[in-house]
TrEMBL record:
This is RNA pseudouridine synthase. One of its GO terms (molecular function) is RNA binding. Coiled coil: none annotated. Pfam families: PseudoU_synth_2. The lineage of its organism: Bacteria, Pseudomonadati, Verrucomicrobiota, Verrucomicrobiia, Verrucomicrobiales. Belongs to the pseudouridine synthase RluA family. PANTHER family: MITOCHONDRIAL RNA PSEUDOURIDINE SYNTHASE, RNA PSEUDOURIDYLATE SYNTHASE DOMAIN-CONTAINING PROTEIN 1. One of its GO terms (biological process) is enzyme-directed rRNA pseudouridine synthesis. InterPro entries: PsdUridine_synth_cat_dom_sf, PsdUridine_synth_RluA-like_CS, PsdUridine_synth_RsuA/RluA, RluA_PseudoU_synthase. Residues 17-178 form the Pseudouridine synthase RsuA/RluA-like domain.
Length: 265
């Protein structure tokens, strides 16, 4: 028997129209223009091969960054993708994220409404994807509440629940950094982006670990709700073990990341 490739993710819920999964980090959602690597989409195509053979067509409804874990909603056919897409376009869906951030916010709850624009549109930027706050950007709004404040040997940290009211690229990360509390492990927004450039050149190093603490950004899509009938469908995903270890003060494991490939004869 040949090698079988299994992509590591957890199914939360499923219907004839959609499937909801808990994506680990650093699993990428869909293929990028890089060397071949396992993707969530590829794993779902394996899992749902019968539906695809009988006319199905997968559509990722809620995309997450490679380094963000948590709830991902995927449509199983074109009609479902269209209907779910309209729900998000009308901003009728409700999202919650959990972030582990640097420092202890002074307020227990706050709102950030800073507009966001790609840095390269208003000046020189070595990082194409980096976003910045600027009055020339698109409207953007996120609510935050502090769930927990804690300390480790490395310093003070907080767990913050995030409620994005809009769906701009990197908005939670940008708004938390703007608020003075960047996400632990965020290479793009912990500073000016130099950590990201260094990581791209050298990979994860002990020097980066001393500055960022975690090899991936500590952001987790914890809850998603979409309207259905007279109410809402609600899906939740527990925090991943690496973030729980960090919050509970347990020693940091070596930065091997999450095992994505499993090979069986």
């Amino acid at each position: 028997m040949g090698l079988q490739v299994i992509v590591d993710f957890q199914v939360i819920d499923e219907s004839d129209d959609w499937i909801v999964v808990n994506k680990p980090a650093p699993l990428i959602v869909h293929p990028a223009n890089r060397k071949p690597e396992p993707t969530l989409l590829g794993g779902l195509e394996n899992l749902l091969s019968f539906e695809l053979e009988t006319g199905g067509c997968l559509g990722i409804v809620t995309r997450l960054d490679r380094e963000t874990s948590g709830v991902v909603l995927v449509a199983k056919h074109t009609a479902a993708a269209r209907e779910l897409g309209m729900i998000f376009e009308r901003r009728e869906a409700r999202k919650q994220y959990l972030a582990v951030v640097l420092g202890w916010p002074e307020q227990d709850a706050w709102r950030c409404c800073e507009r966001i624009i790609r840095a390269g549109e208003i000046g020189h930027s070595e990082i194409w994807v980096r976003q910045v706050t600027d009055a020339r950007g698109k409207d953007c709004e996120t609510r935050f509440t502090v769930e927990r404040r804690f300390e480790r040997a490395e310093g003070k940290f907080s767990v913050v629940r995030c409620f994005p009211e809009t769906g701009r690229m990197h908005q939670i990360r940008v708004h938390l950094a703007h608020s003075g509390h960047p996400i632990v492990g965020d290479k793009l927004y912990s500073g000016s982006g130099e950590e990201y450039i260094e990581w791209m050149e050298t990979g994860w190093t002990s020097a980066l670990e001393r500055r960022l603490y975690l090899p991936r950004q500590a952001l987790h899509a914890s809850c998603l709700e979409v309207p259905s009938g007279d109410g809402y469908l609600r899906w939740e995903a527990d925090l991943s073990p690496d973030l729980l270890d960090f919050i509970e003060g347990r020693p940091l494991k070596e930065a091997a990341g999450v095992v994505i490939w499993s090979r069986h004869d």
